[in-house]
Design goal:
The protein is of the alpha/beta class and about 290 residues long. It has eleven helices and five strands. A five-stranded parallel β-sheet has the order 3-2-1-4-5, with helices on both faces. The longest helix has 23 residues. The relative contact order is 0.15.
Length: about 290
């Protein structure tokens, strides 16, 4: 019991450090080093610097741990991707996109394009067959409403236990490939009103402990956006040089973003609240 409690306390402290580091625009290691009085070097915070940093890393000579990013090609996971590249260098980061029966492949195509733009290895993995829902059944209409308008409780766009399934698969791959961290882009608005229970702090804490213990303490779940809003993420990603035009959010998967589905509205609202120009092309201008 004492060992389990010690593991839980260590995992909690790590997640707290991740949260505070994200708010301060630091890596978790920089945050810990600054508070523990240990020397550290600054990390790049602009897109052009990422390749400069990565060029200095030679996996054959350097034993820097590697990270895997659960990457959907959207705003949140792409910001996580750029954070991972900042922390590890692009040659030590692998992006995994999971095909679980989505109603369209646009997000997977955009994920590949984003990874190509920064020289990150990208793989599309066949995932488990998940129960039918709006995101996996093209016959179910996509609501034209914001998340707030949908009200509290489980979102109609929720896929039953999707993140638990995907993170379990990624954790197995990470351990097999000797990767030390999984970057996962759940954020505060996903958890708000319990729209997505597998994005809540309660879920993340339990999943982080399960991954850490289940991989013989080899793999940690990193959730740097856990306490951030969409506007916070847009601000953070802009500072990292995320190419927003390459990201994809829309549930409908048409030629351009629809501008009316919940995620299109949340995407545009994030840019507006961050006071940053939204470069997205929408079929209908978001209200």
């Amino acid at each position: 019991m004492a060992i389990d409690q010690e593991i839980e306390e260590e995992a909690f402290k790590w997640r707290e450090a991740e949260r505070k580091a994200a708010m301060a625009g630091e890596t978790t290691e920089e945050h810990l080093a600054r508070h523990l009085g240990q020397p550290t070097s600054p990390s790049p915070d602009k897109h052009p610097d990422l390749e400069d940093k990565a060029c200095k890393v030679d996996p054959e000579e350097d034993k820097t741990p590697r990270a895997v990013v659960l990457h959907s090609g959207g705003i949140d996971s792409t910001t996580c991707l750029f954070l991972a590249v900042r922390d590890f260098g692009n040659r030590n980061v692998v992006a995994l996109s999971i095909h679980y029966g989505q109603r369209h492949s646009k997000e997977l195509e955009h994920a590949q394009e984003i990874c190509n733009s920064i020289g990150v290895e990208h793989h599309i993995v066949e995932g488990p067959v998940l129960p039918m829902s709006m995101l996996t059944n093209p016959d179910v209409p996509v609501p034209s409403a914001s998340y707030e308008e949908l009200g509290p409780g489980v979102s109609p766009t929720y896929v039953p236990y999707r993140n638990g399934n995907l993170l379990s698969l990624v954790a197995a791959i990470a351990q097999a490939q000797s990767m030390s961290a999984i970057y996962f882009g759940a954020h505060a608005e996903d958890a708000h009103n319990w729209a997505y229970p597998d994005c809540t702090p309660e879920f993340i804490g339990a999943q982080a402990n399960a991954i850490y213990i289940g991989t013989y303490h080899q793999v940690r779940l990193v959730t740097p956006l856990e306490w951030l809003t969409k506007a916070d993420i847009v601000t953070l990603g802009t500072g990292l040089g995320v190419p927003w035009k390459l990201t994809w959010s829309c549930y409908k998967g048409e030629k351009v973003h629809c501008g009316t589905c919940p995620t299109c509205l949340a995407r545009h609202d994030g840019f507006v609240k961050a006071n940053i120009t939204d470069p997205t092309v929408y079929h209908n201008t978001p209200r």
